[in-house]
Amino acid sequence: MIASYSLKEIAWKRIVFFLFLIIIPNYLVMQVQLVGPVDDMVGLGTALDLVIILPLVLYFFGFMKRVSWLVLFAFVFWGGLLANWMIPNEADGYLSYFNHSVIVLEAGIIVLELVLFIAIVKRFPLLLRNHKNEKNMHYHFLLSFTAAIQSTFSFRNERLNKFQFTLRILATDIAAIYYSLFSWRKSAPSIEQGKGHAFTYHKDGSYLGVFFMLVHAMALEIIAVHILVAQFSHTAAWIVTGLDVYTLLFIISDYQAIRLSPVVLDSKGIHFQKGIRHYGFIAWEQVNGVEENTKYPKEVGQDRKSIVLALHGLEKEQIPYVLKLNEPVEIQQIFGFKKTIQSIYVKMDEAHKFNETVRFYTKGY
């Protein structure tokens, strides 16, 4: 539904600026009542700001390039929810008109989504067959499923192909549910002798302690935040709790995916999937070689044309090696986003063997 674009194409500073510019003054007027008691006309102004002005501003100025109009509808929906929360009862005389408009708008979107859902269901058997075929070429779930999506839902009309972005988001959600709930008896893929080499990067490090700390903190936060928000609204409490549980599933699934998705080097190239954060394939002819990394962790973090196949503890450790690429390569990121990279910083559990394997495969290029 949304054209594929990079996170760098979102104007974060503008979004934050407009959110503060519109939300804070309205909050001070409605909730704090900084200028005195409010009435229906003042409430109407706030409703206009949150349901119409703010969504339009975010849509036209929050992105570096044009995105789907469905994003605007999403902003209107969240603006309506924000208006219902912010405007007190004594000033909500006109709010029902906005609520009805948002309901009609959302009903139209639901109908559109149902049409899309029917189209997906009809092609679902083909998607499963394509995924089965892609699994023979790719070692990791996200890469094989994304390739199956592209081959199953490719249309002559370029606009229809934009639906692939939504399906790639769906792939991330499916991966999160699978890895967090149904993968505990699974083991990492075994590579037949002579057909490739698998390398892990989660055993030699302290990330496991960070993982348990995050899970423990999220579990406590779910309970504490639910109790706190429930004092004001039971509905909001369950919404927040649902989002927190979803976040917890993502944390668990990310570690499980890391454990079950080693970096695989075979005769074709490098297959990688770092949790559910990013994944891709790089052919050997695109790899210049592996060399010692001289950049400090802070400098590595500032390299926007790279990814890091390594896990840190509470403090970032020195990344020992870097894979240099001959040309920019596009990889997939979480929720369907894409990124162009020119280098990969690596810290494998078997560093020496990994380096020797890379040199073996790249010596002919």
From TrEMBL:
Transmembrane found in the keyword field: yes
Key words of the record: Membrane, Transmembrane, Transmembrane helix
Keyword DNA damage set for record: no
Membrane spanning residue stretches: 12-29, 41-62, 69-87, 102-124, 165-184, 205-229, 235-252
UniProt-recorded name of the protein: Beta-carotene 15,15'-monooxygenase
Taxon lineage: Bacteria, Bacillati, Bacillota, Bacilli, Bacillales
